[in-house]
Design goal:
about 270 residues, alpha+beta, three-stranded mixed beta sheet
């Protein structure tokens, strides 16, 4: 009965985009400018169409700790990774199973929740950029559990090619208040699971520690040192931020101390 109620709520609350095709209409703006406004109206299909698609089995983890999940194919193929994998199944296969042996079960669960609802727990309690997230009673920020939750969703979304979920996860990171040890756990995960070119998530970490290292490192100095030795790129990024900031402040100070030049002098030097 609980599953039926949840499914009913999802169907009532969500209108999913169909096959992605768009009907483009051009309308003339009635303001006398003669310009034209282009409006896109995506075609839509009933959410039930997704639920009528075949079920795909997803095995997360391996061995005794593995978990079997299921999801509708029409939703999964919104991910380029799953679309490519599903395309390799033989026609007429009675069972379609995909194994994600190295992924985090909670991150995969958040991914599936996003596919069905367009969001994942914990959700923002408002539309503003700084709106707080729902309280997660099972997560403790002493060890950075909430930060790690969103970081794992971020890296999973990157692997699966779901840019919107990746951006959503990153936006939630900045809504979490954590401790020094929690921030270190988060930084360790990011620098261990993202490429160096991913400045979207790495740069804010470097700037965060660059601005607060003097205070925060005293709360977790040994862990901070270990992290710098374990990931030299982290130490370099933080140092680069500190030096760039000092250089910028020094240049601004020099410009302020420099005496103004007269127009005659500028003309004579021309």
């Amino acid at each position: 009965m609980a599953e039926v109620q949840i499914l009913s709520r999802v169907i009532d609350d969500i209108e999913m985009i169909g096959d992605g095709e768009e009907v483009v209409e051009v309308e003339e703006i009635e303001d006398g400018t003669g310009e034209e406004e282009v409006t896109s109206k995506p075609t839509r299909s009933a959410f039930m169409d997704y639920l009528r698609s075949p079920m795909i089995e997803i095995v997360v983890g391996q061995g005794e700790t593995s978990t079997l999940l299921t999801a509708h194919e029409a939703l999964l193929v919104r991910s380029p990774f799953f679309k490519s994998t599903v395309a390799n199944f033989s026609e007429g296969a009675t069972t379609k199973r995909i194994e994600l042996v190295n992924e985090d079960i909670d991150a995969v669960g958040s991914f599936l929740e996003y596919l069905y609802t367009g969001e994942y727990f914990p959700r923002a309690l408002g539309d503003s950029r700084d709106a707080a997230l729902e309280v997660d009673p099972d997560a403790s920020e002493d060890e950075g559990e909430q930060l790690l939750r969103h970081a794992r969703v971020y890296t999973l979304a990157d692997k699966l090619g779901v840019a919107e979920l990746k951006a959503l996860a990153h936006s939630k990171v900045h809504r979490v208040d954590s401790t020094a040890k929690g921030e270190i756990a988060y930084a360790r995960y990011v620098y261990g699971n993202t490429p160096r070119a991913d400045t979207t998530i790495r740069k804010p970490i470097a700037s965060f520690w660059g601005m607060r290292a003097y205070v925060l490192r005293h709360d977790a100095e040994d862990d901070f040192k270990t992290l710098c030795l374990e990931y030299p790129e982290f130490a370099f990024d933080v140092l680069s931020f500190v030096l760039d900031t000092r250089e910028k402040k020094g240049s601004e100070r020099d410009r302020q101390d420099e005496p103004p030049r007269s127009s005659k002098k500028r003309k004579g030097n021309a």
